[in-house]
Protein backbone atom coordinates (compact mmCIF):
# COMPACT_ATOMS: atom_id res chain seq x y z
CA UNK A 1 0.00 0.00 0.00
CA UNK A 2 1.36 3.48 -0.95
CA UNK A 3 2.26 5.84 1.93
CA UNK A 4 -0.71 8.17 1.28
CA UNK A 5 -3.11 5.26 1.15
CA UNK A 6 -1.69 3.89 4.36
CA UNK A 7 -2.20 7.20 6.16
CA UNK A 8 -5.74 7.40 4.82
CA UNK A 9 -6.43 3.87 5.98
CA UNK A 10 -5.04 4.65 9.41
CA UNK A 11 -7.20 7.76 9.61
CA UNK A 12 -10.29 5.80 8.62
CA UNK A 13 -9.47 3.05 11.08
CA UNK A 14 -8.95 5.60 13.85
CA UNK A 15 -12.28 7.23 13.01
CA UNK A 16 -14.04 3.88 13.04
CA UNK A 17 -12.50 2.95 16.36
CA UNK A 18 -13.50 6.28 17.86
CA UNK A 19 -16.99 5.97 16.40
CA UNK A 20 -17.30 2.45 17.69
CA UNK A 21 -16.07 3.36 21.16
CA UNK A 22 -18.46 6.28 21.32
CA UNK A 23 -21.38 4.12 20.26
CA UNK A 24 -20.59 1.46 22.77
CA UNK A 25 -20.23 4.08 25.47
CA UNK A 26 -23.51 5.69 24.46
CA UNK A 27 -25.22 2.29 24.53
CA UNK A 28 -23.85 1.89 28.03
CA UNK A 29 -26.27 4.58 29.13
CA UNK A 30 -23.75 6.08 31.51
CA UNK A 31 -24.27 9.56 30.10
CA UNK A 32 -20.54 10.18 29.92
CA UNK A 33 -19.33 10.04 26.34
CA UNK A 34 -15.82 11.14 26.97
CA UNK A 35 -14.46 7.65 26.42
CA UNK A 36 -12.96 7.67 29.91
CA UNK A 37 -11.32 4.28 30.21
CA UNK A 38 -11.22 4.08 33.99
CA UNK A 39 -14.99 4.68 34.26
CA UNK A 40 -15.55 2.04 31.59
CA UNK A 41 -13.36 -0.44 33.40
CA UNK A 42 -15.20 0.27 36.63
CA UNK A 43 -18.54 -0.38 34.94
CA UNK A 44 -17.22 -3.60 33.44
CA UNK A 45 -15.93 -4.72 36.82
CA UNK A 46 -19.35 -4.02 38.33
CA UNK A 47 -21.01 -6.17 35.68
CA UNK A 48 -18.50 -8.92 36.20
CA UNK A 49 -19.12 -8.67 39.92
CA UNK A 50 -22.85 -8.86 39.37
CA UNK A 51 -22.52 -12.16 37.53
CA UNK A 52 -20.51 -13.72 40.31
CA UNK A 53 -17.19 -13.58 38.54
CA UNK A 54 -14.06 -13.75 40.62
CA UNK A 55 -11.70 -14.83 37.83
CA UNK A 56 -8.86 -12.68 36.60
CA UNK A 57 -9.72 -12.54 32.94
CA UNK A 58 -6.51 -10.78 32.03
CA UNK A 59 -4.80 -14.02 32.96
CA UNK A 60 -6.92 -16.41 30.96
CA UNK A 61 -7.45 -14.32 27.85
CA UNK A 62 -6.71 -16.64 24.98
CA UNK A 63 -5.51 -16.73 22.23
CA UNK A 64 -5.35 -12.97 21.78
CA UNK A 65 -1.84 -12.19 22.85
CA UNK A 66 -1.79 -8.40 22.74
CA UNK A 67 -4.12 -5.84 24.24
CA UNK A 68 -3.50 -3.46 21.32
CA UNK A 69 -6.75 -2.80 19.59
CA UNK A 70 -6.46 -2.99 15.83
CA UNK A 71 -9.25 -2.50 13.34
CA UNK A 72 -9.03 -6.13 12.25
CA UNK A 73 -9.44 -7.27 15.81
CA UNK A 74 -12.49 -5.16 16.43
CA UNK A 75 -15.98 -6.49 16.36
CA UNK A 76 -18.01 -5.47 13.36
CA UNK A 77 -19.91 -2.21 13.36
CA UNK A 78 -21.59 -1.03 15.43
CA UNK A 79 -19.62 -2.49 18.28
CA UNK A 80 -21.13 -5.71 19.59
CA UNK A 81 -23.62 -4.84 22.29
CA UNK A 82 -22.21 -5.49 25.73
CA UNK A 83 -24.42 -6.82 28.45
CA UNK A 84 -23.25 -3.85 30.52
CA UNK A 85 -25.61 -1.75 28.43
CA UNK A 86 -28.79 -3.68 29.01
CA UNK A 87 -28.44 -5.49 32.29
CA UNK A 88 -31.92 -5.88 33.78
CA UNK A 89 -33.75 -7.62 36.58
CA UNK A 90 -36.45 -9.38 34.53
CA UNK A 91 -37.16 -13.09 34.82
CA UNK A 92 -36.35 -15.26 31.74
CA UNK A 93 -40.06 -15.49 30.72
CA UNK A 94 -40.23 -11.69 30.49
CA UNK A 95 -36.81 -11.38 28.89
CA UNK A 96 -38.01 -13.60 26.04
CA UNK A 97 -40.71 -11.16 24.95
CA UNK A 98 -39.19 -7.73 25.62
CA UNK A 99 -38.38 -5.82 22.48
CA UNK A 100 -35.33 -3.83 21.49
CA UNK A 101 -35.36 -4.59 17.83
CA UNK A 102 -34.37 -1.54 15.87
CA UNK A 103 -34.24 1.67 17.93
CA UNK A 104 -32.96 3.73 15.01
CA UNK A 105 -35.54 2.67 12.42
CA UNK A 106 -37.44 5.83 11.31
CA UNK A 107 -40.83 4.01 11.28
CA UNK A 108 -40.59 2.61 14.83
CA UNK A 109 -41.89 -0.88 13.99
CA UNK A 110 -43.05 -3.03 16.88
CA UNK A 111 -41.29 -6.07 15.50
CA UNK A 112 -37.75 -6.36 14.15
CA UNK A 113 -37.74 -5.81 10.38
CA UNK A 114 -35.75 -8.12 8.12
CA UNK A 115 -32.98 -5.92 6.77
CA UNK A 116 -32.64 -8.02 3.65
CA UNK A 117 -29.70 -6.21 2.12
CA UNK A 118 -26.08 -7.11 1.50
CA UNK A 119 -24.72 -3.56 1.57
CA UNK A 120 -25.40 -0.22 3.28
CA UNK A 121 -24.76 3.18 1.68
CA UNK A 122 -22.13 5.27 3.46
CA UNK A 123 -22.40 9.05 4.02
CA UNK A 124 -19.13 9.65 2.15
CA UNK A 125 -15.93 7.85 1.22
CA UNK A 126 -14.30 8.90 4.48
CA UNK A 127 -17.26 8.73 6.86
CA UNK A 128 -19.01 5.55 7.80
CA UNK A 129 -22.49 4.68 8.93
CA UNK A 130 -23.20 2.00 11.51
CA UNK A 131 -23.30 -0.84 8.95
CA UNK A 132 -21.50 -1.34 5.67
CA UNK A 133 -21.78 -5.01 4.62
CA UNK A 134 -24.06 -7.75 5.94
CA UNK A 135 -21.30 -10.32 6.39
CA UNK A 136 -19.74 -7.86 8.87
CA UNK A 137 -22.96 -6.68 10.50
CA UNK A 138 -26.68 -6.38 9.88
CA UNK A 139 -29.35 -4.73 12.09
CA UNK A 140 -31.56 -7.86 12.20
CA UNK A 141 -28.55 -9.88 13.32
CA UNK A 142 -27.60 -7.26 15.90
CA UNK A 143 -31.14 -7.47 17.33
CA UNK A 144 -30.84 -11.26 17.63
CA UNK A 145 -27.31 -11.20 19.06
CA UNK A 146 -28.30 -8.57 21.58
CA UNK A 147 -31.36 -10.55 22.68
CA UNK A 148 -29.32 -13.74 23.04
CA UNK A 149 -26.60 -11.89 24.98
CA UNK A 150 -29.26 -10.69 27.39
CA UNK A 151 -30.75 -14.16 27.87
CA UNK A 152 -27.34 -15.79 28.39
CA UNK A 153 -25.81 -12.95 30.48
CA UNK A 154 -23.05 -12.68 27.89
CA UNK A 155 -20.70 -9.82 27.15
CA UNK A 156 -21.59 -10.55 23.52
CA UNK A 157 -23.34 -13.18 21.45
CA UNK A 158 -22.74 -14.14 17.82
CA UNK A 159 -25.15 -15.75 15.39
CA UNK A 160 -23.83 -18.28 12.87
CA UNK A 161 -25.29 -20.14 9.93
CA UNK A 162 -25.52 -23.42 11.90
CA UNK A 163 -24.65 -24.97 15.23
CA UNK A 164 -21.66 -26.60 13.52
CA UNK A 165 -20.44 -23.20 12.26
CA UNK A 166 -20.66 -21.95 15.86
CA UNK A 167 -18.73 -24.97 17.16
CA UNK A 168 -16.21 -24.59 14.36
CA UNK A 169 -15.58 -21.00 15.47
CA UNK A 170 -14.78 -22.20 18.99
CA UNK A 171 -12.25 -24.66 17.58
CA UNK A 172 -10.73 -21.82 15.50
CA UNK A 173 -9.59 -20.21 18.74
CA UNK A 174 -6.99 -22.98 18.80
CA UNK A 175 -3.81 -23.01 16.81
CA UNK A 176 -1.56 -25.81 15.65
CA UNK A 177 -0.05 -27.65 18.62
CA UNK A 178 -2.82 -26.65 21.04
CA UNK A 179 -4.93 -29.27 22.74
CA UNK A 180 -8.68 -29.45 23.32
CA UNK A 181 -10.12 -31.78 25.97
CA UNK A 182 -13.55 -33.01 24.96
CA UNK A 183 -16.26 -34.92 26.72
CA UNK A 184 -16.27 -38.58 25.59
CA UNK A 185 -20.02 -38.46 25.07
CA UNK A 186 -20.11 -35.56 22.62
CA UNK A 187 -22.54 -34.78 19.78
CA UNK A 188 -21.59 -36.81 16.67
CA UNK A 189 -21.06 -33.76 14.45
CA UNK A 190 -18.61 -32.25 16.95
CA UNK A 191 -16.79 -35.60 17.17
CA UNK A 192 -16.41 -35.58 13.36
CA UNK A 193 -15.28 -31.93 13.29
CA UNK A 194 -12.64 -32.57 15.94
CA UNK A 195 -11.30 -35.90 14.74
CA UNK A 196 -11.53 -35.39 10.99
CA UNK A 197 -10.88 -31.66 10.66
CA UNK A 198 -9.18 -30.09 13.69
CA UNK A 199 -6.89 -33.08 14.27
CA UNK A 200 -5.78 -32.90 10.62
CA UNK A 201 -4.88 -29.26 11.14
CA UNK A 202 -2.51 -29.99 14.01
CA UNK A 203 -4.86 -29.55 16.97
CA UNK A 204 -4.58 -32.32 19.53
CA UNK A 205 -7.97 -33.75 20.48
CA UNK A 206 -8.23 -35.71 23.73
CA UNK A 207 -11.46 -37.32 24.91
CA UNK A 208 -12.11 -37.45 28.63
CA UNK A 209 -15.06 -38.11 30.90
CA UNK A 210 -15.91 -34.59 32.06
CA UNK A 211 -18.22 -35.94 34.78
CA UNK A 212 -15.01 -37.14 36.47
CA UNK A 213 -13.08 -34.09 37.71
CA UNK A 214 -10.05 -36.17 38.70
CA UNK A 215 -9.82 -37.57 35.18
CA UNK A 216 -10.07 -34.07 33.71
CA UNK A 217 -7.40 -32.69 36.07
CA UNK A 218 -5.09 -35.56 35.08
CA UNK A 219 -5.71 -34.99 31.36
CA UNK A 220 -4.82 -31.27 31.39
CA UNK A 221 -1.37 -30.59 29.92
CA UNK A 222 0.51 -27.34 29.23
CA UNK A 223 -0.87 -27.56 25.68
CA UNK A 224 -4.50 -27.69 26.82
CA UNK A 225 -6.27 -24.46 25.90
CA UNK A 226 -9.96 -25.40 25.84
CA UNK A 227 -12.16 -27.92 27.66
CA UNK A 228 -15.37 -28.54 25.74
CA UNK A 229 -18.37 -30.39 27.12
CA UNK A 230 -22.16 -30.72 27.19
CA UNK A 231 -24.28 -31.07 30.33
CA UNK A 232 -26.47 -33.05 30.03
CA UNK A 233 -24.55 -34.77 27.27
CA UNK A 234 -26.27 -35.72 24.07
CA UNK A 235 -27.66 -38.42 24.08
CA UNK A 236 -26.54 -40.21 27.27
CA UNK A 237 -27.60 -37.26 29.43
CA UNK A 238 -24.47 -37.38 31.61
CA UNK A 239 -24.15 -34.47 34.02
CA UNK A 240 -20.90 -32.52 34.43
CA UNK A 241 -20.34 -30.11 37.30
CA UNK A 242 -19.87 -26.89 35.34
CA UNK A 243 -18.89 -24.74 38.34
CA UNK A 244 -16.13 -27.13 39.37
CA UNK A 245 -15.00 -27.66 35.78
CA UNK A 246 -14.74 -23.87 35.33
CA UNK A 247 -12.68 -23.49 38.49
CA UNK A 248 -10.39 -26.32 37.42
CA UNK A 249 -10.05 -24.91 33.90
CA UNK A 250 -9.25 -21.42 35.14
CA UNK A 251 -6.64 -22.73 37.59
CA UNK A 252 -4.80 -24.00 34.50
CA UNK A 253 -5.52 -20.87 32.37
CA UNK A 254 -7.80 -22.95 30.17
CA UNK A 255 -11.15 -21.84 28.73
CA UNK A 256 -14.29 -23.83 29.43
CA UNK A 257 -16.69 -24.13 26.50
CA UNK A 258 -20.14 -25.69 26.90
CA UNK A 259 -22.50 -26.78 24.16
CA UNK A 260 -25.74 -25.94 25.96
CA UNK A 261 -28.08 -26.83 23.08
CA UNK A 262 -30.02 -29.21 25.38
CA UNK A 263 -30.42 -26.51 28.00
CA UNK A 264 -31.80 -23.30 26.49
CA UNK A 265 -31.19 -20.09 28.48
CA UNK A 266 -34.70 -20.07 29.96
CA UNK A 267 -33.56 -22.97 32.18
CA UNK A 268 -29.76 -22.69 32.33
CA UNK A 269 -27.24 -19.87 31.95
CA UNK A 270 -23.80 -21.48 32.05
CA UNK A 271 -21.89 -18.17 31.84
CA UNK A 272 -23.20 -17.39 35.33
CA UNK A 273 -21.56 -20.61 36.53
CA UNK A 274 -18.13 -19.50 35.33
CA UNK A 275 -18.21 -21.03 31.83
CA UNK A 276 -16.34 -18.91 29.24
CA UNK A 277 -18.08 -19.86 26.00
CA UNK A 278 -21.61 -21.13 25.51
CA UNK A 279 -22.56 -22.66 22.18
CA UNK A 280 -26.06 -23.45 20.93
CA UNK A 281 -27.40 -25.18 17.91
CA UNK A 282 -30.16 -22.56 17.63
CA UNK A 283 -31.78 -24.96 15.18
CA UNK A 284 -33.29 -26.62 18.27
CA UNK A 285 -34.98 -24.58 21.02
CA UNK A 286 -34.30 -21.07 19.69
CA UNK A 287 -36.18 -21.91 16.51
CA UNK A 288 -38.61 -24.29 18.22
CA UNK A 289 -40.42 -24.98 14.96
CA UNK A 290 -37.84 -26.96 12.96
CA UNK A 291 -37.87 -24.28 10.28
CA UNK A 292 -34.31 -22.92 10.20
CA UNK A 293 -30.72 -23.78 11.08
CA UNK A 294 -28.45 -21.53 13.07
CA UNK A 295 -25.83 -21.46 15.79
CA UNK A 296 -24.84 -19.15 18.62
CA UNK A 297 -21.64 -18.44 20.50
CA UNK A 298 -22.05 -16.49 23.74
CA UNK A 299 -18.96 -15.08 25.39
CA UNK A 300 -18.36 -13.79 28.90
CA UNK A 301 -15.09 -11.94 28.33
CA UNK A 302 -15.21 -8.85 26.05
CA UNK A 303 -11.65 -9.53 24.89
CA UNK A 304 -12.56 -13.03 23.78
CA UNK A 305 -15.65 -11.56 22.12
CA UNK A 306 -13.36 -9.48 19.90
CA UNK A 307 -11.68 -12.63 18.67
CA UNK A 308 -14.99 -14.39 17.96
CA UNK A 309 -16.27 -11.30 16.11
CA UNK A 310 -13.12 -11.26 14.05
CA UNK A 311 -13.51 -14.94 13.10
CA UNK A 312 -17.20 -14.52 12.27
CA UNK A 313 -16.40 -11.72 9.84
CA UNK A 314 -13.16 -13.15 8.46
CA UNK A 315 -14.59 -16.61 7.84
CA UNK A 316 -18.00 -15.38 6.62
CA UNK A 317 -20.02 -17.72 8.83
CA UNK A 318 -22.62 -15.26 10.12
CA UNK A 319 -26.36 -15.94 10.01
CA UNK A 320 -28.44 -14.37 7.23
CA UNK A 321 -31.09 -11.71 8.10
CA UNK A 322 -34.17 -13.82 7.38
CA UNK A 323 -33.01 -16.62 9.69
CA UNK A 324 -32.17 -14.02 12.35
CA UNK A 325 -35.78 -12.86 12.12
CA UNK A 326 -37.05 -16.43 12.54
CA UNK A 327 -34.91 -16.97 15.63
CA UNK A 328 -36.05 -13.65 17.12
CA UNK A 329 -39.60 -14.86 16.61
CA UNK A 330 -38.78 -18.25 18.14
CA UNK A 331 -37.28 -16.65 21.25
CA UNK A 332 -40.60 -14.98 22.08
CA UNK A 333 -42.26 -18.32 22.85
CA UNK A 334 -39.17 -20.16 24.10
CA UNK A 335 -40.08 -19.97 27.78
CA UNK A 336 -43.64 -21.16 27.15
CA UNK A 337 -42.57 -23.97 24.81
CA UNK A 338 -39.78 -25.25 27.01
CA UNK A 339 -41.85 -25.17 30.19
CA UNK A 340 -44.80 -26.98 28.64
CA UNK A 341 -42.53 -29.59 27.04
CA UNK A 342 -40.71 -30.10 30.34
CA UNK A 343 -43.97 -30.86 32.12
CA UNK A 344 -44.71 -33.48 29.46
CA UNK A 345 -41.16 -34.85 29.75
CA UNK A 346 -41.50 -35.58 33.46
CA UNK A 347 -44.69 -37.57 32.91
CA UNK A 348 -43.28 -39.47 29.95
CA UNK A 349 -40.08 -40.34 31.82
CA UNK A 350 -42.19 -41.72 34.69
CA UNK A 351 -44.30 -43.84 32.32
CA UNK A 352 -41.25 -45.19 30.50
CA UNK A 353 -39.47 -46.06 33.75
CA UNK A 354 -42.47 -48.19 34.80
CA UNK A 355 -42.71 -50.12 31.51
CA UNK A 356 -41.36 -53.69 31.72
CA UNK A 357 -39.71 -53.50 28.26
CA UNK A 358 -37.66 -50.40 29.06
CA UNK A 359 -34.24 -51.20 30.51
CA UNK A 360 -32.83 -47.80 31.50
CA UNK A 361 -34.12 -44.25 31.22
CA UNK A 362 -31.62 -41.37 30.96
CA UNK A 363 -32.72 -37.83 31.78
CA UNK A 364 -31.85 -35.26 34.45
CA UNK A 365 -34.89 -35.99 36.60
CA UNK A 366 -35.88 -38.47 39.32
CA UNK A 367 -35.09 -42.02 38.18
CA UNK A 368 -33.20 -40.78 35.13
CA UNK A 369 -29.74 -40.40 36.71
CA UNK A 370 -27.95 -40.90 40.03
CA UNK A 371 -29.03 -38.73 42.95
CA UNK A 372 -25.61 -37.01 42.93
CA UNK A 373 -25.92 -36.19 39.20
CA UNK A 374 -29.44 -34.88 39.83
CA UNK A 375 -28.19 -32.71 42.70
CA UNK A 376 -25.51 -31.20 40.44
CA UNK A 377 -27.95 -30.68 37.59
CA UNK A 378 -30.51 -28.98 39.83
CA UNK A 379 -27.82 -26.69 41.21
CA UNK A 380 -26.98 -25.41 37.74
CA UNK A 381 -30.33 -25.27 35.95
CA UNK A 382 -33.98 -24.78 36.75
CA UNK A 383 -35.43 -27.67 34.73
CA UNK A 384 -34.87 -31.13 33.34
CA UNK A 385 -35.09 -30.12 29.66
CA UNK A 386 -37.19 -31.95 27.11
CA UNK A 387 -34.99 -34.87 26.01
CA UNK A 388 -35.17 -38.46 27.27
CA UNK A 389 -33.04 -41.37 26.11
CA UNK A 390 -33.72 -44.99 26.95
CA UNK A 391 -32.57 -48.51 26.16
CA UNK A 392 -34.77 -51.53 25.51
CA UNK A 393 -32.22 -54.34 25.43
CA UNK A 394 -32.92 -55.03 21.75
CA UNK A 395 -32.07 -53.01 18.65
CA UNK A 396 -34.99 -54.51 16.71
CA UNK A 397 -37.42 -53.72 19.56
CA UNK A 398 -36.21 -50.09 19.60
CA UNK A 399 -36.66 -49.89 15.82
CA UNK A 400 -40.15 -51.41 15.90
CA UNK A 401 -41.11 -49.01 18.67
CA UNK A 402 -39.99 -45.94 16.71
CA UNK A 403 -41.55 -47.14 13.47
CA UNK A 404 -44.88 -47.72 15.21
CA UNK A 405 -45.03 -44.35 16.93
CA UNK A 406 -47.24 -41.81 15.19
CA UNK A 407 -46.64 -38.67 17.24
CA UNK A 408 -42.89 -39.08 17.86
CA UNK A 409 -41.80 -38.56 14.26
CA UNK A 410 -38.60 -40.35 13.30
CA UNK A 411 -36.33 -37.33 12.90
CA UNK A 412 -32.87 -36.24 13.94
CA UNK A 413 -32.66 -32.99 15.89
CA UNK A 414 -34.76 -31.94 18.90
CA UNK A 415 -36.36 -28.93 20.55
CA UNK A 416 -39.31 -28.56 18.20
CA UNK A 417 -42.93 -27.95 19.25
CA UNK A 418 -43.79 -31.44 18.02
CA UNK A 419 -42.35 -34.62 19.51
CA UNK A 420 -39.54 -36.46 17.74
CA UNK A 421 -37.71 -39.75 18.16
CA UNK A 422 -34.51 -41.21 16.75
CA UNK A 423 -31.83 -43.85 17.23
CA UNK A 424 -28.54 -41.96 17.81
CA UNK A 425 -26.22 -44.78 16.64
CA UNK A 426 -27.67 -44.85 13.15
CA UNK A 427 -28.90 -41.26 12.94
CA UNK A 428 -27.60 -38.19 14.90
CA UNK A 429 -24.34 -39.87 15.99
CA UNK A 430 -23.72 -42.06 12.93
CA UNK A 431 -20.69 -39.92 12.03
CA UNK A 432 -18.80 -41.44 14.99
CA UNK A 433 -17.06 -44.60 13.72
CA UNK A 434 -18.62 -47.73 15.26
CA UNK A 435 -15.37 -48.75 16.96
CA UNK A 436 -15.13 -45.37 18.74
CA UNK A 437 -18.79 -45.14 19.68
CA UNK A 438 -19.61 -45.56 23.35
CA UNK A 439 -23.39 -45.47 22.85
CA UNK A 440 -25.61 -48.54 23.23
CA UNK A 441 -26.95 -49.58 19.80
CA UNK A 442 -30.51 -49.94 21.14
CA UNK A 443 -30.56 -46.37 22.53
CA UNK A 444 -33.65 -44.35 21.57
CA UNK A 445 -33.71 -40.56 22.01
CA UNK A 446 -37.01 -38.75 22.37
CA UNK A 447 -37.51 -35.01 22.06
CA UNK A 448 -40.74 -34.20 23.85
CA UNK A 449 -42.97 -31.54 22.34
CA UNK A 450 -45.88 -29.44 23.55
CA UNK A 451 -48.73 -31.76 22.55
CA UNK A 452 -51.36 -32.83 25.09
CA UNK A 453 -49.44 -35.29 27.24
CA UNK A 454 -52.39 -37.73 27.19
CA UNK A 455 -51.93 -38.14 23.45
CA UNK A 456 -48.19 -38.63 23.84
CA UNK A 457 -48.62 -41.25 26.58
CA UNK A 458 -51.21 -43.10 24.52
CA UNK A 459 -48.97 -43.03 21.45
CA UNK A 460 -46.00 -44.39 23.44
CA UNK A 461 -48.14 -47.15 24.94
CA UNK A 462 -49.44 -48.12 21.50
CA UNK A 463 -45.93 -48.15 20.01
CA UNK A 464 -44.55 -50.21 22.92
CA UNK A 465 -47.45 -52.67 22.61
CA UNK A 466 -46.79 -52.99 18.90
CA UNK A 467 -43.04 -53.49 19.41
CA UNK A 468 -43.77 -56.21 22.00
CA UNK A 469 -46.16 -58.01 19.64
CA UNK A 470 -45.29 -60.31 16.77
CA UNK A 471 -47.27 -58.20 14.30
CA UNK A 472 -45.63 -57.33 10.95
CA UNK A 473 -44.65 -53.68 10.57
CA UNK A 474 -47.55 -51.37 9.64
CA UNK A 475 -47.96 -50.66 5.96
CA UNK A 476 -47.10 -47.09 5.20
CA UNK A 477 -44.50 -45.47 3.03
CA UNK A 478 -42.23 -44.58 5.95
CA UNK A 479 -42.70 -40.82 5.72
CA UNK A 480 -45.29 -40.78 8.44
CA UNK A 481 -46.30 -37.14 8.27
CA UNK A 482 -49.88 -37.57 7.14
CA UNK A 483 -53.05 -36.79 9.02
CA UNK A 484 -54.37 -40.16 7.80
CA UNK A 485 -51.77 -41.91 10.00
CA UNK A 486 -52.89 -40.24 13.22
CA UNK A 487 -54.78 -42.33 15.79
CA UNK A 488 -58.48 -42.47 14.85
CA UNK A 489 -61.40 -41.82 17.18
CA UNK A 490 -62.85 -45.22 18.16
CA UNK A 491 -66.21 -45.68 16.36
CA UNK A 492 -69.15 -46.66 18.56
CA UNK A 493 -71.38 -49.49 17.30
CA UNK A 494 -74.03 -48.37 14.74
CA UNK A 495 -77.02 -48.32 17.09
CA UNK A 496 -75.00 -46.29 19.62
CA UNK A 497 -74.29 -43.74 16.90
CA UNK A 498 -77.94 -43.36 15.90
CA UNK A 499 -79.08 -43.10 19.54
CA UNK A 500 -76.45 -40.43 20.18
CA UNK A 501 -77.41 -38.62 16.97
CA UNK A 502 -81.07 -38.57 17.81
CA UNK A 503 -80.39 -37.25 21.31
CA UNK A 504 -77.69 -34.61 20.63
CA UNK A 505 -76.67 -34.17 17.04
CA UNK A 506 -79.92 -33.70 15.24
CA UNK A 507 -80.97 -30.39 16.80
CA UNK A 508 -77.44 -28.99 16.40
CA UNK A 509 -77.28 -30.07 12.73
CA UNK A 510 -80.76 -28.78 12.17
CA UNK A 511 -79.94 -25.38 13.70
CA UNK A 512 -76.68 -25.15 11.75
CA UNK A 513 -78.57 -25.94 8.58
CA UNK A 514 -81.19 -23.30 9.32
CA UNK A 515 -78.60 -20.66 10.32
CA UNK A 516 -76.39 -21.50 7.34
CA UNK A 517 -79.27 -20.82 5.01
CA UNK A 518 -80.40 -17.59 6.61
CA UNK A 519 -80.16 -14.67 4.20
CA UNK A 520 -77.90 -12.75 6.61
CA UNK A 521 -75.25 -15.47 6.73
CA UNK A 522 -75.43 -15.98 3.00
CA UNK A 523 -74.34 -12.35 2.53
CA UNK A 524 -71.27 -12.84 4.68
CA UNK A 525 -70.18 -16.24 3.39
N1 LIG B 1 -24.71 -29.44 19.20
C1 LIG B 1 -25.63 -30.37 19.51
C2 LIG B 1 -25.74 -30.82 20.93
C3 LIG B 1 -26.46 -30.91 18.52
O1 LIG B 1 -27.36 -31.84 18.86
C4 LIG B 1 -26.32 -30.45 17.19
C5 LIG B 1 -27.19 -30.98 16.11
O2 LIG B 1 -27.96 -31.87 16.29
C6 LIG B 1 -25.34 -29.50 16.90
C7 LIG B 1 -24.57 -29.00 17.92
C8 LIG B 1 -25.14 -29.02 15.49
O3 LIG B 1 -26.09 -28.06 15.18
P1 LIG B 1 -26.58 -27.76 13.67
O4 LIG B 1 -27.26 -28.99 13.19
O5 LIG B 1 -27.48 -26.58 13.83
O6 LIG B 1 -25.38 -27.47 12.86
Automatic annotation (TrEMBL):
Gene3D superfamilies linked: Aspartate Aminotransferase, domain 1, Type I PLP-dependent aspartate aminotransferase-like (Major domain)
Signal peptide segment: none
Listed Basic and acidic residues bias regions: 473-485
Residues that span the membrane, as ranges: none
Cofactor: pyridoxal 5'-phosphate
Alphabetical list of CDD domains matching this protein: CGS_like
Annotated keywords: Lyase, Pyridoxal phosphate
Protein name as it appears in the record: Cysteine-S-conjugate beta-lyase
Lineage of the species this protein comes from: Eukaryota, Sar, Alveolata, Dinophyceae, Suessiales
Amino acid sequence: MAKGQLEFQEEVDAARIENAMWRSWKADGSGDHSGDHSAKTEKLERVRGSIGDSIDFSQIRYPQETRRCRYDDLPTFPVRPNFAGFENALQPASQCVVFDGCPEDPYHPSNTPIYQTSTFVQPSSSEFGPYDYTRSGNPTRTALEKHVAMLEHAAAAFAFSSGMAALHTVTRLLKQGDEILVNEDIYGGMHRLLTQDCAHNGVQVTFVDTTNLTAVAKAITPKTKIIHTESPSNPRMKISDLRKLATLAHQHKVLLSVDSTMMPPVICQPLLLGVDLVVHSATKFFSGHADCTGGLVCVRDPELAHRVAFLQNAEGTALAPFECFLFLRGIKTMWLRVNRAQENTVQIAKALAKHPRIKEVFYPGPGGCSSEALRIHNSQSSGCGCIISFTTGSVSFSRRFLDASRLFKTTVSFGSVNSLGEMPCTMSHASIPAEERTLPADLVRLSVGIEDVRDLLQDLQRALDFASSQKPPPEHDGYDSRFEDLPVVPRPPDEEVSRHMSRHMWPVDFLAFRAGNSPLLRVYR
